[in-house]
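Consider this pair:
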Amino acid sequence: MAPGTPASPGRLAERLDFLFRSVLFVPAVPEPNGNTSPREYTYVEVAAAINDAAGHPLVTGQNLSYLRRGLRGQTGRTNHRLIRAIETFFGVAPGYLDDDQIAAEVNDHLDVIAALRDADVRAVVAQIQGLPPGMLHALLRVAIETRALAGLPPARITDATETA
């Protein structure tokens, strides 16, 4: 898809869903229900933040719900300012919602962040931090071979695996 070309409703919904599932709210203090665990942002929270940043009403929680489910924007006329405001809220590069290359790069980074939520992954990263590049490359080769033995596909982060 060419930059600036509106994303199809299905593609927009897919990417918006990925953002809601990947970019989590982490309470600084326990929420009224006692929850302290990361969770998805609510549509109302996202809409309120977008509207506050815009200084005027730009979207409702219900509109975001429709967009996430692919029920709005069928004409490709989803407000460009709204698209950029959603990207800004979730902290992704401008163009994420309508440019395939940008989306692929951002998704790779969000997948790594999601993996770091796993305590075992964090433990591995902590142990390899500070190792010399040669040892890191050796461990990368072992990880690639281990994934293959486990029947897992190669990781999508191509910049690291190209050097292994």
Summary: Residues 9-99 form a domain with the 434 Repressor (Amino-terminal Domain) fold (CATH 1.10.260.40). Residues 133-149 form the longest helix (17 residues).
